[in-house]
Amino acid sequence: MMPEPERALLCHVLETPGEAIPAAARDAARVFILDTLAVGIAGTAHEDQPGIIAAASRWGAAGAATVWGEGTRLPAAQAAFVNAFQAHALEFDAIHERAVVHAMTPTLAAALAEAERQGGVSGARLVSAVVFGLELACTIGAASRGPMRFFRPATAGMFGAYGAVARLRGFDLAKGAAGAGLLLGQIPGTMQAHHEGGMALAVQMGFAAGAGLRAADLAEAGARGPEGWLTGASGFLAMTEPEHDLAPGLAALGRTWQAQALSHKPFPSGRLTHPVIDGLQRLRAGETIDPASVREVRLHLPPLAMRLVGRPLHDDLTPNYARLCLPFVAATTLRFGTVGLADFTPARLTDAATLALAAKVRLIQDANPDPNAVVPQTVEVQHATTARVTVEHTLGSPANPLSREARIAKAVSCLAAARRPRADVAALVAAVETLDTAPDLGALMRAASG
Q: 37 near 174, Cβ under 8 Å?
């Protein structure tokens, strides 16, 4: 018999009418669809992207779905894999801070691949599928009450991919449960890739997106997974998040919507670096700080920041490592005023003045009892005086959101940074902002493929 938490989640995802989604949640979903597509297009410039496409092409050549920014067509699961890789490869994709899950990345990658494979899917149906995929991934991710043991953006994210696909296919409760159980054998990744700062993190996000399509295909073919896929003795939570509390998330279903809890990443670095970047920018705006005069930078950080971006500075930095290295990111902000895609090029990664300043950054763990807290973070810079600021709400979060102008500017920078740079973001913006009235996804996919 299916446990009640599994039943409640699947009923919400599969049976709630699309009309029940409030306008604010649909608006938020469209905002982050644009962000994710733009970041995914920028990800075509990642040095490992050609190899990822080559590998995915060997898994099947029939083209049902589009690789964002490329126009290449691959089987749906392979296209979802590549697109999720691209969207996470530059550490620029949106995040749900409470869940610590980049839920939109695998959810949108799988949903668009499935919609292309089906054909004839309206924009409103796509938005609804994305919203409900986010409900599943973020409710599960936010249940954690312990430190991250597996790579939660991918492990919880795969449920978002599956929820969106199952919604698009119109699965009933029995078939939805059959496929959800088949995700357990595809749990995509531990934290080892994060510790080492490797590109495998983005590959794991690709695995998450592909897993959603594979599980749906198997369920449609009659395969069945365990019914206690989430709360069973060896279910997802027991294995990956043994310290958890699902009750608040279940109680919130249909009352609050996870799409409205997503956060933009205004900087292409680990989310836990963003309060420090914001804090340093505030200090620079308030007084003149000559990087050459800085004696020490002290960062007071919650445990999650220490674990995820508190890695030591070392010689021979790679872009993947540096994006999650807070000393490097903080020094870059002090020297150049911000952190952008160009700051992870070889010239910047070996810049002697930046590395010397990074060596002066001291990380101090605070007493925050929440192992999943992003903020508050306190930044102190010792130079002629001591400047100090505490960041309570991360820039880009619902409590400190980006303006529309800033969101569009980010999309422009992403398209300009792609392997095949594009100067005009207008078609992509228009296609996303009119999705709820679009009879099909033609305009969106033309704009996304370039």
A: no
